[in-house]
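Dock zinc ion; give full complex structure.
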Amino acid sequence: MKNPISSAFFLVMLLLLGALGAMYYVKAEWTPPTLALTPEQSTASTRTVFTITAADKDSALHSLHVVAVQGGNTVDIINKTLPPGTRELREEFSLPKAGLKNEPLTLTITVKDTSWHRLGRGNRAQIVRQMDIDSKPPVISVLSGQHNVNHGGTGLVVYSTNEELAVSGVRLGDHFFPGYPYQPGKYLSFFALPYNIDPKAVTPVLVATDLAGNESTVGFNFRPLMKKFKHDSINISDNFLQSKMGQFADLYPDATTPIDLFLKVNSELRAKNVNFLVELGKDTVPQKLWDGTFVRLPNSAPMAAFADNRTYLYQSNAVDNQTHLGVDLASLAASPVPAGNTGRIVLAEFMGIYGNVVVIDHGFGLQSLYSHLSEIHVQTGETVQRSQIIGKTGATGMAGGDHLHFGVLVSGIEVQPIEWWDPQWIDHNITSKLN
Ligand SMILES: [Zn+2]
């Protein structure tokens, strides 16, 4: 005869166990959290900022532990329990200045989730990385001797370092012109001496940061060659407004009159387009694609020069002032436009005041621009040869008549184009430094 009480007890125990089992099954998911550590290099200094990202979709994250071990010495960098419900984690840290020597260490990052798996210890993700410690800034040697740079023109500095670099280049005021590896152990940086910077007030310096984040700054032999830029006035006729402003009307629906629209286009849209070109300047390859002097539009007369300062007059009143960044060349209407040099098309479309415009990347941050085209014969991504016809001259965008607006840019900053038509200038300032 069975005892009814013990039978009931047995049943209750069975149900309880079943419930616990079901809970364990639900709570004890088996998937470990995701875990990543950047930067991925194996060299660091106390300046290196590491970023940990972790996530757990099934259960929340429970704890984070970062530890550095050097010989028998263990240093806790982070050791914490995370707030309940933490599903994503992003945490920055640097190696502590105290307690670690200037020698290799092992960095271990561990995150656990709140799963009941492993008898309540949770699923675990771990990164173990052997790190070399480098606290010495790179030693930069400038290899190019003279840097006599025209105001508004291009400079080139060639240098070497004693270790691999994460980033380097020329800093000039607020501008930074990236440097690129050029030959084994050698780097180069093309930089602009922008027309709108006072060359007597700022001096370019070469900056280099190694993989561990140590930075060096050195000066180099720099002499600015002062230039006088022209000033002229441009009359804005109602005729011009009537024929040109229609193409921009949908961009500024709030413009009340044609001259109002003109002023918005000439200042706001111009500034937008200039900023876009700075961004486009990053679309470059670490290679010299060009060779020899740049090709100038054949049989053309210069109509406007680089950095001409223009006052815009409307009904005899000065209404705006802008700087013309390029050279205007006029030939016969719809003349074929040759690529200034070999390169890669990075822009071939209608863009604001430039109208139909083509930009060619020649590598190392050097680009050329062809604007107001009536026809474009190339596509983005295509490689073009020096002299290859890329389109036809026209008057699209803010152009009063058929001409080619030709520009040269260094990391997106407009520079004096005539230097690139001058074989002597190229020889003295560029080729002799590269060879
Ligand atoms: Zn122009």
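Observed: The chain is about 15% helix and 40% strand.
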